Amino acid sequence: MTTSTSPAAAAVDPEAYLQVRDLKVQFPTEDGLVRAVDGVSFSVRRGQTLGIVGESGSGKSVTSMSILGLHNPARTKISGEISIGGQNIVGMKEEKIQKLRGKDVAMIFQDPLSALHPYYKVGAQIAEAYKVHHPSASKKEASTRAVDMLNRVGIPQPQRRANQYPHEFSGGMRQRAMIAMALVNDPALVIADEPTTALDVTVQAQILELLEDLQREFQSAIIMITHDLGVVSQVADDVLVMYAGRPVETGSVEQIMKRPQHPYTWGLLASVPSLHGDANVDLVPIKGNPPSLINLPTGCSFNPRCRYAGQNGNRSFSEVPELRPAGEDGHNVACHMSFETRQRLYAEDIAHAGVAQ
Amino acid sequence: MLRFLIKRLLLAATTLVAISIVTFLLFFAVPSSPAWTQCGRNCSPERIAQVEQSLGLDQPITKQYTDFVKGVFVGRTIDDAGTIRECTAPCLGYSFRSKEPVTDTIERSLPVTISIVAGAMVVFLTVGIGLGMLAALKKGTVFDRVAIGASVGFASTQTYTLGGVLLLLLVYSTGILPNPHYTPLTENPLDWAGGMLLPWITLGLINSALYARLSRAQMIETLQEDFVRTARAKGLSPRVVNRRHALRAAITPIITIAGVDLGAYLGGVVITESVFSLNGIGREAAQAVSDLNLPLVMATVLLAAFFIVAMNIIVDMLYAVIDPRVRLG
């Protein structure tokens, strides 16, 4: 078990490279306090992949930005612990975090066209990432290394490509270049924030495969942030499902995909079209929209959108559910319904819809 | 690149010809004659006709226009009431008022305008962009508020207000600065700068305000770009992120605006020149219009148009150099 997410019982995994415990990220704004992340714990070992799943505004990107220490401390309140290779970066000095960023923890961003600088050549941007953590390297060494990396991520004619600008690359090639840049310093942890969302489906598969190959080669820990359960099922070992800044379900990819226990996870699964079955009837979208992070619904944040809210008297509306063991080892869920009720509802209502079938 | 240049030069030439025709037509549409301003209030119709003839205004408009164009390219002979003047190309005619060749007037007044504009640009580009960028980096702080507050104040001031106040304070009351005057740079650089200091400060400060707000907005927008976040995620120091990544992208549109502004200012900064009694091209143009001095009006209008058109071409080419995504064609 590499993922343990109950804030109360956040077990320390001594082998984990990244250990996040009871992370809370809040942004004070003029409209009120935005609770973007409200008590999340997880851990990832080297060579393992954790998928973080949720809709926009569920807190997954904010979580990843905190792991890089990229939030402006003047405008953000962060508490909890983010331990990277044994060092807690919460409250760490900016200069020290800078030394970790890009070297121990690297990030692959969603849209490589906007994430790469439009005015600099791709090779130069990769070389810059190398040089900042290898100050003694010569310019030539850094650019040779950049070409090397472009070659490693499967870009043909890397020498020529290094001298081109991002806009001269195709979408898939750009994301490969982005990955080359992230991996140039052999980071132990790679955070991929929706790395395939902006790409064609056929290219998506190539990029995911590339990430897996590189993970085997570098033994890095990967956090895959996505709203796409297809991606998660393909690459993740463990899954964390987030809703409105809180973890709602965690477990192995097998547990989450095959035996999901939270109505929100059911909703995510049932709203992904399946290649089998009747296209007209088999989708069950989650009604409504994610809540405002300033004014969360009382009780379970998911209650306004949950078909089953109110099954246990008033608890859905008055009590915030904690993550609790959901039966199998490593599987946790934050839901007021009993295990038996969840089992029954899943079998009756969900198992036949979308990819859940 | 060459194709682009040829296309733009042709377009520029067309623009200038069109402007010259419109100016000519507008001049003759005015219900007054230069002859009136020449011979005064109690002028007999015979005298008017005589003056008009001496100025060549009795000829058909088309003939006058073709004569003007011919003069520009090959030169022409002007018969001014018996006095024959040789006017070599580029001939812009003789001033109706002073009888001096218009090219001489331009040669005398253009350096004045160029001096004012060049110095003022140095002021507003450094002060304006510098303040704006700093304010963006320190967004929300006291510095930001003071800088932006001050720039709103200056931006809503007019040259004749600020210029007048500065003249009073720095020249007439205290004598800290000399009275604004023009000495050619080649003659005495120190005196050139001393005489230009006040116009530089005035025009510079007012434009700094605009450029400060522009650069601040541009920089704040750029700092939120994904590629700036990428630069930070690489582990670059804030200094490198701001300078190499954010500033580089934020400054590009500002250069464009500065280039177009430069083109517009070189045609004459009428109010600045008037406030400080400097005989630049703008003041000559304003005077020429009120005198109905056709040759000088034509010359100053065309010169202003030329600067604007030329700077636009230069800015477009510069943009292609700065931003690799821009392809000229």
TrEMBL record, chain A:
- Family the UniProt entry places it in: Belongs to the ABC transporter superfamily.
Q: Name one GO biological process term.
A: peptide transport
PANTHER family found in the cross-reference section: DIPEPTIDE TRANSPORT ATP-BINDING PROTEIN DPPD, OLIGOPEPTIDE TRANSPORT ATP-BINDING PROTEIN APPD
User: Which PROSITE patterns does UniProt cross-reference here?
Assistant: ABC_TRANSPORTER_1, ABC_TRANSPORTER_2
The record describes its membrane topology as: Peripheral membrane protein
Keyword Protease assigned to the entry: answer is no
- Please verify whether the record's keywords include Metal-binding: no
Protein's UniProt name? Peptide/nickel transport system ATP-binding protein
SMART domains documented for this protein: AAA
The chain positions of domain ABC transporter read 18-269
**InterPro entries attached to this UniProt entry:** AAA+_ATPase, ABC_Ni/Peptide_Import, ABC_transporter-like_ATP-bd, ABC_transporter-like_CS, Oligopep_ABC_C, P-loop_NTPase
Q: What is its main location?
A: membrane
- Where in or outside the cell? Cell membrane
Q: Which domain of life is it from?
A: Bacteria
Q: Which GO CC annotations does the UniProt entry carry?
A: plasma membrane
Spell out the molecular function terms from Gene Ontology. Answer: ATP binding; ATP hydrolysis activity
Q: Which organism is it from?
A: Actinoplanes philippinensis
From TrEMBL, chain B:
GO CC field:
plasma membrane
Q: Name one Pfam family in it.
A: BPD_transp_1
Coiled-coil annotated spans: none
Q: Which Gene3D superfamilies match?
A: MetI-like
> Carries keyword Transport?
yes
Per UniProt, the keywords (alphabetical) are: Cell membrane, Membrane, Transmembrane, Transmembrane helix, Transport
Membrane topology, as annotated, equals: Multi-pass membrane protein
Q: Where in the cell is it found?
A: Cell membrane
Domain ABC transmembrane type-1: from-to ranges: 110-319
Query: What is one GO biological process annotated to this record?
Result: transmembrane transport
Transmembrane parts of this sequence = 112-134, 146-172, 192-212, 249-276, 296-322
Q: Which family does it belong to?
A: Belongs to the binding-protein-dependent transport system permease family.
> What is the name listed in the Swiss-Prot or TrEMBL entry for this protein?
Peptide/nickel transport system permease protein
Q: Which organism is it from?
A: Actinoplanes philippinensis
